[in-house]
Design brief:
By secondary structure, the chain is of the alpha/beta class. 43% of the residues lie in helices and 17% in strands. It has two domains: 21-49 and 288-385, Aspartate Aminotransferase, domain 1, CATH 3.90.1150; 55-285, Aspartate Aminotransferase, domain 2 (3-Layer(aba) Sandwich), CATH 3.40.640.10. The chain has 14 helices and 14 strands. Strands 3-9-8-7-6-4-5 form a seven-stranded mixed β-sheet, with helices on both faces. It has a four-stranded antiparallel β-sheet with strand order 10-11-14-13, with helices on one face. Helix 2 packs antiparallel against helix 11, helix 4 packs parallel to helix 5 and helix 12 (288-304) runs parallel beside helix 14 (369-385). The longest helix has 17 residues, at 288-304. The model has no long low-confidence stretch (mean pLDDT 96).
């Protein structure tokens, strides 16, 4: 019976330490949180600049709701597009140095819509093996030939591109990889895109607001610009609100507006969010002190952690993974941290490769040095006890 099979499948997830747990917060997003009735110090969120709980941003959202109401009423291409959406898209395009931008309701929708709009049957997609699930799904929806190259392996990518006879080619990569925290070699990727006449789609979900001068993202940090680049950034991480955008050459963005099904066939995001996001971009642009504090916390964590059996991965970003390996062991470690009042998520397959289960420590500008020292000291002690 179908229900019996579902119950058996859930039991198998339990047996393999793979069942996810959803927890409920009763406080504003921030490091000091009340979660499932407990006061916790959280190292979970992607709110890298601490803007999600910023009072000025909450006030901007309230102001937007008073001005624009609660919802958009329709899809963007019917009657759900407002002048404040236009203002946000223009601001985002200028901020990341592109001709034009298109605002999506979520990052997953953006990535799921970009790839099928640009390539299809008879074409080829070349994707880093550690790309986010939204890029994987977008590649599958495109129905193009999918070639996955080893993580950041430019030689493997070059060989795959050279062997391809596809009429159109598209390279797709995260900039900051969400579970490793490392940064893609964007300059080398663009050189390959130019040599093999390919699009380069980059997902800067974890770089936008954090990397580059004034938080303008990974492209600005690398000093790159090209009509071949299709740039995606999310607005629910460092920007602290919700949604995503795609930026690039004007005709490319117009094509996505016409052909991206996840843009065309969904209700437009509330204009109040766009109003708040305009304030968020201002906070990002003037957030040099926040980014400096965040960089200092990253350095402090890496100095204070003295792990021998567990592996702190190489990362210069707010994502600081500690690889444990075994699923059951990382779940037990996350539980031990929880018991100490520290909320750090255990990440297991299929989110990460088998045998590489890990803690994903996420630092934000809202953390203090005391917060980071407490985490490092507790982890050091737990390893010594293990």
């Amino acid at each position: 019976m179908l229900l019996d099979q579902l119950r058996a499948d859930l039991a198998e997830l339990d047996a393999r330490s793979l069942r996810r747990i959803r927890r409920s917060l009763d406080t504003v997003c921030g490091p000091h949180a009340r979660v499932d009735g407990r006061d916790m110090l959280a190292f979970c969120s992607n709110d890298y600049l601490g803007l999600a709980g910023e009072p000025a941003l909450a006030e901007a959202l309230q102001e937007g709701a008073r001005r624009w109401g609660a919802g958009s009423g329709a899809s963007h291409l019917v009657s759900g597009h407002y002048t404040v959406h236009d203002a946000l898209e223009a601001r985002l395009a200028a901020f990341v140095g592109c001709e034009r931008a298109l605002y999506f309701s979520t990052g997953f929708m953006a990535n799921s819509g970009i790839l099928p709009a640009l390539v299809g049957r008879g074409d080829a997609i070349f994707a880093d093996r550690l790309n986010h699930a939204s890029l994987v799904d977008g590649a599958l929806l495109a129905r193009a030939d999918l070639h996955r190259y080893a993580h950041c392996d430019m030689a493997a990518l070059e060989r795959a591109l050279a062997a391809s006879e596809a009429r159109r080619k598209l390279i797709v990569t995260d900039t900051v990889f969400s579970m490793d925290g490392d940064v893609a070699p964007l300059r080398a990727l663009l050189e390959l895109a130019e040599r093999f006449d390919a699009w380069l789609v980059i997902d800067d979900a974890h770089g936008f607001g954090v990397l580059g001068p004034e938080g303008r993202g990974a492209l600005a940090e690398a000093g790159l610009a090209s009509w071949r680049i299709v740039y995606m950034g999310t607005l629910g991480k460092a920007a602290g609100v919700s949604g995503a955008f795609v930026a690039g050459q004007a005709e490319v963005i117009e094509w996505l507006l016409q052909k991206s099904r996840t843009y065309v066939f969904t209700t437009g995001a509330p204009p109040a969010l766009a109003h708040a996001l305009l304030a968020s971009i201002d906070l990002i642009e003037s957030g040099t002190a926040r980014r400096a504090h965040l960089a200092a916390l990253i350095g402090l964590l890496r100095e204070e952690l003295a792990l021998e059996r567990w592996q702190l991965m190489a990362s210069r970003t707010p994502i600081q993974p500690v690889v444990v390996g075994d699923n059951a062991e990382v779940v037990a470690l996350a539980r031990a941290l929880w018991d100490e009042g520290l909320w750090v998520p255990a990440i297991r397959p299929p989110t990460v490769p088998h045998g590489s289960a890990r803690l994903r420590i996420s630092l934000t500008a809202a953390h203090t040095e005391e917060d980071v020292r407490r985490l490092a000291q507790t982890l050091n002690e737990l390893e010594r006890r293990a």
